[in-house]
Amino acid sequence: MFLTISTTGSKGLPATDLGFLLHKHPDKAQAFSTSYGDAHVFYPEASAERCTAALLLEVDPVALVRRGKGKGRGGAPDMSLAQYVNDRPYAASSLLAVALRTAFASALRGVCNALPERAASPLPLRIEVPVLPARGGAALVRRLFEPLGWTVEAEAVALDERFPEWGDSRYIRLVLEGELRLADALRHLYVLLPVMDDAKHYWVSPDEVDKLLRMGDGWLPSHPEQQLITSRYLSRRWSLTRQALERLELARLAEADDTEAEEIDNAIDEETDTDEKPVPLAVRRREAILDALRAAGASRVLDLGCGQGQLVGALLKDVRFTEIVGVDVSVRALNEAARRLRLERMGERQSSRLTLLQGSLAYTDARLKGYDAAVLSEVIEHLDLPRLPALEYAVFGAARPATVIVTTPNVEYNVRWETLPAGHVRHSDHRFEWTREEFRTWAHQVAGRHGYGVAFAPVGPDDPEVGPPTQMSVFSLTKTTAKEAAA
Ligand code: SAH
Question: Start-end ranges of CATH 3.30.1610.20 in the chain?
């Protein structure tokens, strides 16, 4: 199994920079062992004008059989020769994706301390895979790569060149050309090689969903073949596929609207604050939340749906918050949070207080158990109403922090905001906005169901008629379950 990645020199920069970007020196051949055999990286050519890195995987067919492919239907051992004598060692496939991840782990993450700017910018790239099993043929391969900005050359490989009348094999020769960031190109291959092959060799575990979303960040949420990619990548395990598609959809929506949210808050600020220097509504919200957390005596805090990490940043400034966990479904938001908080340059002491986690609040998550408090700041309205009970259970039923703070827009206030057309919500990703009455009703029901008490507070100017722009509730755990009492 074999693939090559080539680049040419551009803008006065030498093509051999590829060696830095891949973290593999062009003068050295290197070998890595994977569970399926040895992977080799070497450079057939390396000049300032043109540089090619090759990845070769020598598959060990016996290891392949031992690692789980060796079960026949119903789990009985399959003793047939076909297991040992098959195309796996020769055809690029999911095994090559594993080799890619082993040999180019840092490049896949887009990390390059030597040439950070080069890693972050598009390069003229040419990728060639001489033999690739492709279920769906050349047409599918085009549908997979063209939307990502690649020019695709895909031709069927003849079964035997000496006998053209035998027709084509199920393999193609693939050449991709385009100006892309190297990390993006590698991620496309990492996800799409097994998708084309459609015969994943290893057991697909639930953390494959996380891996798919990580590797698909920035391109999979908007890919027209998202459904096929997700389902094949996850070996058609339907429950995982559904979960992944749902998270992709959320990620897409969340990514589209980050800036809009801020613009709307600013518009409200301009219209509400007249005399003194206006305090932005987002700032007031953060201060109200911080006050409530301090009043509750919380030190270990979850920021659920943390977005780009503004609250996390404010929590870090106060040493009483000893452990801070930001959770969001959007990888892009978390990357932006890490960038804004300068996570990479943060000192050991500070960074040991902080964790950023990717996850969906619509699923119970063992990582969220045992905290003093959880904040849901402007998050619940981003879920479809039918999904809200799932979030309720994950937070109040499973994670069960002593304090939960929830803020959400007060829809009654929208009439005070002149530029918002009547009947419109404040943000295109808001699935609903509640009146004060609706919010209180929901909060009382949640509190009752899970053994919490609840109090309410306005955030922003409390209009005598329509109330404040933001409404906040603070839930406090009153009843512990028998199991919690015993612990
Ligand atoms: N808490 C921040 C951001 C609010 S925007 C603030 O107050 O400014 C809503 C955030 O919730 C987005 O970052 C979005 O990605 C996240 N989100 C939406 N649905 C989610 C879900 N099901 N699980 C986790 N995060 C979710």
Answer: 2-203
CATH 3.40.50.150 fits 258-486, yes or no: yes
- Where in the sequence of the chain do the CATH 3.40.50.150 domains occur? 258-486
Q: Is the CB of 375 under 6 A from ligand 1?
A: no
Residue 468: strand, helix, or coil: coil
3-state secondary structure 262-306: HHHHHHHHHHHCCCCCCCCHHHHHHHHHHHHHHHCCCCEEEEECC
Here the tokens at position 482 are 């028998």
CA dihedral sign, ordered 131, 136, 138, 141 = negative
CA-based nearest residue to 371, from 355, 383, 390: 355
Q: Is ligand 1 within 6 A of the CB of residue 255?
A: no
Pairing of strands 37-46, 30-34: antiparallel
Tell me how crowded residue 459 is: count the other CB atoms within 10 A of its CB: 19
| pLDDT tens readout for residues 98-136 | 889 889 999 998 888 888 888 888 999 999 999 888 888
Band (pLDDT 50/70/90 cuts) for residue 298 is very high
For atom 10 of ligand 1, the residue with the nearest CA is: 305
**Residue 273 pLDDT more than 50?**
no
CA distances from 221 to 41, 194, 456 (A): 31, 18, 37
For ligand 1, whether the C-beta of 380 sits within 6 Å is no
List the 168-180 sheet strands across, edge first: 30-34, 37-46, 50-59, 2-8, 123-133, 168-180, 151-158
Q: Is 80 exceeded by the pLDDT of residue 476?
A: yes
- Residue-level pLDDT at 243: 76
Maximum Cα–Cα distance for the chain, whole Å?
Answer: 88
Q: How far is the centre of ligand 1, averaged over its atoms, from the C-alpha of 224 (Å)?
A: 24
Determine the distance separating the centroid of ligand 1 and the alpha carbon of 89, expressed in angstroms. Answer: 45
CB of 362 shorter than 6 A to ligand 1: yes
Cα(125)–Cα(123) distance, rounded to whole angstroms? 6
Contact 217, 110 (CB under 8 A): no
**Architecture in CATH for domain 2-203:** 2-Layer Sandwich (3.30)
